[in-house]
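FIELD: query
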Amino acid sequence: MIPCVYLFQEVFMKQVIIAGVSSGVGKTTISIGIMRALMKRGRTVIPFKTGPDYIDTGFHHAATGRASINLDLWMTGEANTEFIYDMHKNEGEFAVIEGVMGLYDGLGDEKSTGSTAHLARVLHVPVILIIDGSHMAASAAAVVLGFKEYDRDITISGIIVNNVSSEFHFRMIEEAITRTTGIPCLGYLPKNAKLSIPSRYLGLMQEEEIENIDSLMDEAASFIEKHIDLDFLEKVSEGYEEEPRKIHIDPRAPLENICRGLKLGLARDDAFSFYYEDNIRLIEYMGFEIIPFSPLHDSSLPDDLDAIYLGGGYPELYGEKLSGNRTFLDSIKAALDRGIPTYAECGGYMYLMEGIEDAEGKYHKMAGFFDGCSKMTKSLQRFGYAEVQTKSGINLKGHEFHHSRWTGPIETSLSLSLSKPKELGN
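FIELD: result
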């Protein structure tokens, strides 16, 4: 098969990465505020998220009305990530990429693989760096200087100082940063508890769980507009008017329409909502007709499915309602017993076990296709990138983040072997 070749023309594209010196400095709140503020200026904003994240992308959707796209260099590689980015950013005029953790936090290797900095290098996107100014003044310049000098192959085009106590406090920080590093400050944000997004163990609440989410987006935009120089942000985000065409080999080409005529059932409701947008688009590209269903509300699976996809989410929060929908549980177990190909991950896998014990210790009976149950704990059980190998020798990459642990018979058959990436020392 001849691979499909895509030509992407760069046309004065505005693009920026919103990064932080660490987690917890306000990346998500500031990113969604910037996205919404740009939307209010009439810009078509295309949102992206660095790395494997389901929660932040939901807030991006709330801010822009568009599905946010994950960009993960470790899972998809540099060429595929660049293809994904170029394909989606051409849908609008301003690409805003939210970073992950601290700017250089990745696998811990020399390239900082998977980090926000790695993405900035590959995509040639300028970085706006957020620092927390709450407990420093001139020392902020030393922090910024260290980030600037750590990797000269990326461009830090501006600084946003969060959690500032006063205008005078900001001017002290700004003067030190500008004098020492030459990097301009775009503005500062005073402390504002009203804009704090509630946390849960995965990081943040989901967008649909927060009341008046649209009002919160507007408030964040107004806060950004008041304190951040968006005109300057737009200026430093400008791309090149004339750049050579980028030639991409479409990595999806061999899969086009290979599943035409087949129906795939997709679990999608409040309990199951963790999906990477490009995975769903790839399934459609393969020719599948996607039939959504709800384990919370439907009485049975849709008819005539050829495959089932149960994604992640928070089934433990809906344990009583899921357990009470016995007709649907019986329907999905019967489908699996008949041998319908099914992929279940995270919360979807928990749903297919005998039961789930929630954080309060209450047990909820589930589908019972797999032996054992899932028990929620107060501490993080698994976190980080992982590699798996199937019995047939297929290698896959993924990411783990969960507070649950499986309890069941040791003799349960496993089809995958799990390992950490070599870059992590395992």
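FIELD: remark
Confidence is low (pLDDT under 50) at residues 199-205.
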